[in-house]
Write a structure and sequence with these properties.
single chain, about 290 residues, two-stranded antiparallel ribbon, globular
Amino acid sequence: MHRARIATASGLGLVGLVWLGAALAQQPGALPVPVDAGPIATAVSAGKHLRLDGPHGPVHVWIPAGYRAETGATIVYVHGYWNTVDTAWAAHQLPEQVALSALNAILIAPEAPIQQKVAVNYPDLTELLRFVEDKAGVPRGAALTVAIGHSGAYRTIYEWFDEPMLDQVILVDAMYGDEDVIVEWATASERHRLIMIGEDTVLGAEAIAAKLPELVILDRFPPSYPLWPAEAKAARQLYIRSQFAHMPLVSEGVALPSALRLLPVERLAELPWKLPLGSLPRLVDAGTDAVH
């Protein structure tokens, strides 16, 4: 057994707008919308977006143009506290970030708790995926199912650890205790892959890392995908100590697409995978003339 700790070159600076989730959650009528007509916005509009009225809250779905379910992935993204799925979908430009990753993958974002002591909306991953397949009329990606959770999303992700279809988990600053639950899932099967990204929750991440001797540790996000060390790309257990703060991890188009590109899924040539990370469209608040 071994532990690899890899240092990388300096990462990109933070780009774009840091959206305050609490403020956005209080302003549902002022959601930001993309105003660029560049390749990322074009790729997103070429795909299919659905907002489904689910049994436990809304579910957003984005299917890229050229999506092939037989070789594709299913990405289920769960937002953190102080956001609804509607605000996270728009303010964090989730389909744009998946388009930037260029994966052949369907993106599903269900409603999730906005604060503590609020029940988990979708504790059954299988039920959620079957609902989306039925309502969207598109099969989930057969190659891989991955759950991505930011911050308070850990409560939903923990509910899914007993789901046999869950292959990989990406915890984005979502390591809030219960380390043994994460370790047990990560080591229960060779098929399970765990990627942790730590900034605010670095103490939880370090505690989990101490219990996973095969874990590969990366000291920061590399500035581009080709600069990722081969060992980190292939690692079944990976921990990235982030140079990006808690909200920019999911809002600025660097960390999230970079982590998504680690998934062993084919890329779609039609998507803007050659653009630099962080190249998200500009946003404007609906009902105002303020461009960010």
